[in-house]
Amino acid sequence: MVNLRAAAPGDGPALARLHTEMAAYYVDLAPRHFRTPDIDGLAEQIERDLETPDQDALHLVAEVDGEVASALFARLLPASADAEREIQPDLGERRIRIEYLATVAEHRRQGLAARLVDAAESWARDRGATIAETWTYRPSPLSFPFWTERMGYEERSVNLRKPLD
User: Fold this and answer.
1) 124 — phi, psi (to 5°)?
2) Mean pLDDT over residues 138-158, rounded?
3) Distance CA 29, CA 151 (A)
4) Which domain, by its residues, includes 92?
């Protein structure tokens, strides 16, 4: 049984485990670009964040048989006050930015993440958003096809980096 709901106090330990598992996936995939995060105190930090609601933020989880199996964090972004001076028209729109999406390995490819994204997009539409945006690691064989093929997001820019050491 799958249940989508707002993340709530008490979810901190499950969300910290999910974050740890997601980090392991990316570290295994590209150790040069990712690292294992320090999760000491993470569950408590998540608990504090969940206790202080933000009307422009959305924390959702998908439970499978009562256990958190997937999570999403998104935030609404206002239209830029000086959007008429911007070359990117999206900055003149109210947008949702999906900042975090993760699913435990045993429940991947079962539609949980898609259901969370659909719910986030609906939440944003109800609040006047007209654009959804996110980012992901391009070489990921899971996340990039999920966003582009399954969810209909299009690649629009490239994040470039260069270590300065």
Assistant:
1) -70, -45
2) 94
3) 22
4) 2-150
